[in-house]
Each structure stands twice: as structure tokens, then as C-alpha cells.
User: Fold these one by one.
Assistant:
Number 1:
Amino acid sequence: MATTSTLTQRSTMTSAMPKTTIRAESPSKAPTSEASARGAAIYSQSWLLVIYDWWVLGIVSTYAWACSVPDYTLPWFRNNVRKGQHLDIGVGTGYYLAKSDLTGVQVTLADLNQDALDATKNRLVAEGKVRAEDTKCILHDITRPLPASCPKFNSMSLYYLLHCMPGPVPAKTAIFSHLKHSLTPDGVISGASILGKDVQHNLFGRIIMYFGNRGGMFDNQADNSADFDEALREHFDDVETQVRGAIFLWRASKPKV
């Protein structure tokens, strides 16, 4: 993760960068639930963006969820990014994209939080992964269909997002009913999410789960791999899933349209 000075440097770049953010919904009219908005608002805190890679993707993923990002989640991401149009949903800090080969990949970023979009785009530009003028940002509630101006995507990614979305698994996975229509026929969608049910959480994991759900960052106490697998198969013909520690890794292709 970048240092504070690096993030400060990036923030000065923003005004000089082409404005390519698509505001898909007026914030006052967007049908975003209070729980979704609360979870997204966390990423407006600059201190969290500074420590996110070290704490969430390093310490917590390895020792609370027993799923090392470099060993499992990052390779899963890299293996499911296709050349052509790629959509990253719930961008965090852009860690996965920054650690991947994006040659021939046209990146679109989608998130409820403008700060996260700006930080991710600036990071990818600063690290030479993308060109600012070629990278689109969509300020958007992913529970609603993507803007009509979006292209069909060759791949999509939703990493560490579903456990933050409010509601039971069927409510979360309803997004696939419209996302599948934005994939190319041979496109792939993949992700990773923290499970709350039917996995063994260690003490560290139980503490993070308690405070995450109590504070509104998570809504995943009932999330389980069987329900996610069933929902994916409802919308896609080709589904691959696995559980590593407390993390559900999934990929799906051949959308049923």
C-alpha cells in the first residue's frame, strides 16, 4: 500500500487528469440502502486507504481469514482478468489491478465512493498500469443495472465486496441477474468474499467478524458457500468455487441470458 506522502502526491494529480467519472445516479436519487451507503462511506476516510493493503489484505486476510492474498486471492484475480474490457466493482485501493499485468486491458472502475475511485485510478496511473484518459470511473450502486453507455465486458471482478453488501445471500447475488447481461458471451466474472457460516473462524476472525458486522462494514454472518454456489449456477453455466480458510473464491462464465 502507498505511503501517506504518495497518496498526497496522487491527490495533486487529480485536477490535471481528464475527468472520466460517470455519475450513474444522482446521489440524492440513487436507491442506495442506508447499509450500503454506510459501508461505502468508510472508504472516504483517508487513513483507511493508507493502511488498507497492509491491514486488510495483509494481516487480516492471512491471520484472521487464513487465506493469504499473495498465495490464493491475487493469483485467482490474475487468472480471471481477460484482455479487452475489464470492470472492477468495489475497487478498494486498486491493489489487485496494481499487482496484475494489464497489457491489452481497458479498465473501468465502479464504486459507490468517489474517494475510492479517485485513489484507485491515481494509483494505477502513477504505477504505469493504465493511462488516465483510457480509464473510466463509474460512481454507481451495483444493485442497479450498469449505465447504458457501458460496453460489454470481457471480465469483471468483485473482490471483498459481497460480504459488505446488506441482506442475505439471495439479495446480494441478485446483482448477477443484470451483470451477466453486461458480459461478453465468453466473458468471466470472479471474486472473493468472507464467509460467516459453515467455516471455522479463529479468535482473531471472530473478533473482526463481530466488530465488522456491528459497525456496518460487514453483513455476512449468514453468508455461506452453498448459497453462493447455488446463486451463481442460477445465472451461469460454468461455475468454479473453492473455500480457503474463511474466504469463498468463485469464478463464473457462460452467462444464462
Number 2:
Amino acid sequence: MAPEESPSNVLSYILIAQDFLGVNYNSPALAAPPHLANTSTSTMSSTTSKALDAAKSSSQQAKNTLKTMTEETSTTTSSLLHHPYVRPALPFINGGLAGMTATTVIQPVDMIKVRLQLAGEGARNSARPTPLAVLRDIIAQGKVYDLYTGLSAGLLRQAVYTTARLGFFDTFMNTLKARAETSGTQIGFKERAGAGLTAGGLAAMVGNPADLALIRMQSDGLKPVAQRANYTSVIDALSRIAKAEGVTALWAGAYPTVVRAMALNFGQLAFFSEAKNQLKSQTQLSSQTQTMTASAIAGFFASFFSLPFDFVKTRLQKQQKAPDGSLPYKGMADCFRKVAKDEGILRFYRGFGTYYIRIAPHAMVTLIVADWLGFITK
């Protein structure tokens, strides 16, 4: 049986609870019971006060320690981000992460776009499939996950291509801004266009092997089952293509890829930067609304300027040598000529709606994420 508590101990517990809860000691409702009224409280009050002071001191010390740790972490992070070797790399890192995020979201639309471009190859009056028909066909042949065929290649392409193009573009724009501030002038559309074209061309050359692997993986399902390569990953595709066709085959279609990238970046980055600058000066829209509106405008112009080159790039990267060693197309000009003759000029803009749906959201996600990453890494 538990020992009985003395009246003084009971009163001590009551006082401690009152102090802890901030209760008014003089409240009649909380007055000590009559049989404890004569108990001395001086010793108990002193003990309670010391206990509360110790608790407050410990709490304050814990808060100070946590504050110091937070400030030290923030200082360390800031110092790292502003390190002379890290700072120039941030636009490239942010661009790569933004592009990979967007590709993960848009990959199914890109898969449908590629299948539309390869449908009816070499025939002028072939049946024109719709995006929904292509979607149904892909799902009927396999699983929903087949829409993500080539995702590893797409992510590698973004890790290389978008890292380079956004990194180069931001680097060029920062240099142009510094030069404009020094001379007291403003950056014009011509400078933005030049930065976008140059950044796109340089990045496309670096990213062509991953782009080629992506096309091969996405078009593999169109072949008869016996002729499919059944690539397991982008590394598998790159190694097998290089072994069977030579390392230089990884840069097949590089010329239209570069031209397409320059056209796309001219439409996307130059028009995005110009549209955002105009919206900022001419409207009262929020920063987020400006970014989304500018990216939608940029997506349209990027699609319009780049789709013919994207179409030719897809055809050139998909082609493989026949048993006699010949190829369907000798190069970009030959592909343009044969498609225009055999399939009609409008074939270059087949799937424009799907292409825009792929480009615009991809641009929006990429540019919004890049803006956000740029903000938190200032």
C-alpha cells in the first residue's frame, strides 16, 4: 500500500502546478483547503520558485542553442552557395533539375508525339492517326507504363541538354546584364535572341547521343516483334548502338538537332525573357502569373519555329541501315525534300497540337522550377 502524502507535500504539488500553469494564487477558487490553511508555505514557495527558475533557464538555453545551430547552418549553406567555384555552376545545376522535373511530368505526351511523327512514313495519303488513337494503341499493346518508355534516356538528355542550355543562357544573360549596366543601356530582344540561339546550339551538340537513344527506345515498339531491340535502359541503348553502328552514329541527326534546338531556344528562352520583361513593366500581375503567362507565350513560338526541325530530327534518328548499307535519308536537306515530295509540306506540322501540349507545359514546369531554384539559391 502506497504511503500517505503529508499535507505539506500535497500543497507543494498544488503550488507547482499553479506556477507552471500561470494560475492566480489569490483566486478564491484555488485557495488551499481549510485543513491545510495553517501549513507554512515559505519553504515550499522558495523550492517552487527555484525549480521554475531552473526550468526557465534550461528552456532559454535550449532555445539559444537551437537558434545558434540554425544560424550556423544558414551561414554554412550561404557560404557554400556563394563559393567562387560553386556560384558559376548553380545556373547549370538548377537548369538540369528543372528540366528533369518537367520531363518526368511530360514524358507520356512526348511518347505520343514521336509515334505521330513516325506514323505513315513515306506515304502521302496514309491514314492520319489522332493522339487519342495512338494512346489507345500503346495501352492496348502493353501497359500504361509503356508511356514512360525511354524515360531514362529523357532524364539523361535533360541532365545534359537542359543543364547546358539553361546554364549557358543564364551565364550569357548575366554577362549581358553586367555589360548593359556598365554602359547604362538596356538588354534588347536581339541580345536575348542571340543568347538563346547560342545556348541551344551548344547544348544540342552535347546532348545528341541521349536524344538519339530516346528516339530509338520510343520507336522500338513500332517494329515487328522479331526486329525489336528491346533496350533495357539508356545505357544499354547507347552501348549497343555504338557497338553495332559505331560511336559516330550517336551523333546521327546532330545537324537538325542543333538547328531545332536553336529554333526552340529562340522561341522559348528569348520570347520568355522578352514577354516576362514586358509583363513586368506593362502589367500589375504577380510574379507567378507573369512566369506562367510568359512561358505559355514562349511555348507557342518555340513549337512553331522548331516543329519542322524536330520532325526531320526524329526521322533521321529513327532510321537504320538496310541490309545493303543504305539509309532512307542522306541528311537533313534530303529528308526535307523527300517528305515534302512524298508526304506533303503540311506533314512537317503533323501533331502540332500534341507538340504544343508537350512543349508549353514542359517550358512552364522547367522555367517555374528554374525560377524557384534560382530564388532559393540567391
